[in-house]
Amino acid sequence: MNRNEVVEKRRNEEQEQLTVALNRVTDRLMNLQRPENEGELQAMEGEAERRGYFARDFGMDAWDWPQGIGLYGLAKVASYFKDERFAEYARPWMEARIAEGLPSRNINTTAPLLSLMGLPEAEAISLEWAEWLAEGLPRTEENGYQHVTTGSTAAEVTLNENEIWIDTLFMAILFTAKMGVKYDRKDWRETSLHQLLIHIKYLYDRKTGLFFHGWHFTGRHNFSEAFWCRGNGWFTLGLPEYIDLMRPYLDEGVLLYLNQTFRAQSEALLGLQHKSGLWHTLLDDPDSYTETSGSAAIAAGILFGVRRGLLPESFAGPAMRTVKALLEQIREDGIVEGVSAGTPIGKQREDYAHIVTAPMAYGQALAIVLLGEALYRN
């Protein structure tokens, strides 16, 4: 066997390994139920939510942001490989959630529509929700999308008054832009750009190139100034998605600004990558645990950025190390391990390191996106 044949054989073996892992994780996502250790999580008396236990976040049988990112992962499989599983799954999923009664409108409950909006059955609700974002969502100073979330029940909201969070890019800003492109609504497209820019203005740290989790306009602070892994991942993955979608509508100066911000953050992240290929849940704290979902989002965004010419080819190697680390986190039953649960803004940096880990829809989905990018690259 000559050298070329050896290389091709190895490539085929890697492709097969990635494909098997992708199918395993995808199948588990579509059948994801409550976590095995839920009793243990519920028993964290007095601090369950502070440590990430929000009952509605688990599994796929709810309409909120974890499930919305789950749908995003399935839609990505469909776009990469002409896979029919998304449409086959999404239609009955949406029907079941509507029959149960939709939750309150807020930033996080917008997330499912990022993927559902492509279905004819979701057109009316997507248009209603987009109009609500434009006219009904509470705003912060400087007219930012206030990060309103689901309250103690699905029908209630937590206002998080005068706060913006990095999560909003993925949960609502991408949807606003996508609707603006689909329906040729210049006002929605411009709103999405304004929201993106105001989030960069207040959440980007010029000293490090990383992003803080949130900004409080009233207190004029970035809370505990934590550099949270998954929060940075929302930007690393969401920004190239945004550029890819909005490029025809962006002036060259704006495009350059966004691309330079993306590259600066990616460079900073690569400088903090753990030797395993993952990142710590507090990016600059080597004593905090390495976290799978944020790491997958970061690596997938970097690979997507390389593929679209936003980042140099040299950035791909470290991102592919994350793929190898991810494979080690996938159980035989398809569960992705090492995923931190729902993470509110921590009053102290240490709060992020104490968030529990459990199987989550977004963990499955972000693993799918990274595996898809790796297969696309191979």
UniProtKB/TrEMBL annotation:
Keywords: Hydrolase. It comes from the Bacteria. It holds the Pfam family Glyco_hydro_88. The keyword Transferase does not apply. Transmembrane segments: none annotated. The keyword Hydrolase applies. One of its GO terms (molecular function) is hydrolase activity. This is Glycosyl hydrolase.
